[in-house]
# Entry
Amino acid sequence: MASEKGVMLLDFWVSPFGQRARIALAEKGVQYEYKEENLTEKSELLLKANPVHKKIPVLIHDGKPVCESLIIVEYIDEVWSDKATLMPSAPYQRAQARFWADFIDKKVYDCGSRLWKLKGEEQQTAKKEMIDILQLLEAQLGDKKYFGGDSFGFVDVAFVPFTSWFYSYETCANFSVEGVAPKIAQWAKRCMERESVAKTLSDPKKVYEFVCFLKKKFGVE
# Structure
């Protein structure tokens, strides 16, 4: 691994975490080799590249692995710094961007998973939590074009892959993102106008098919 030059991404097609890395690489115009992982039979390369967590995504740059999606996005931004800067230049704004990206990391995926895994009162609790999360993010977005202002940036990259899961969340828990957080729905549409996002995100119906597969797998239908 250490002798290989170039950029490689170990990923899984529907992963919102891997899609963060793909969007960042696309924004920077970086050419890379994409390796789809079978998460039930993880490759030797993945286990070697990420021996601690054994998870995708992993960015391998000139043979050196970088793990964890937000760390990967920051790494991409720092290494290919001549184009499409994702992190704000001011230290306080960078701290705020990291805070909200961390909030998304800790809240959205976990709560979204509970929307399709749970039923009844437990699902209703998860739905209320998801609405609260979306409305908090909407308040942070405000009337700005993107979370960082006029430029597509770090928080947008962190959050936008989850928009392709909105249909699944809505269908499983019977609510409308546009109904509870209209500015987030509008922001999602703006992001989809970017080539980096449109070419990366999964079709929401395909994501829902994957969620249905997971529901069968975990016996939660």
In short: The mean pLDDT is 96. Residues 12 and 38 are 7 Å apart (CA to CA). The longest helix spans residues 91-117. The beta strands are 7-11, 33-36, 58-61, 64-67.
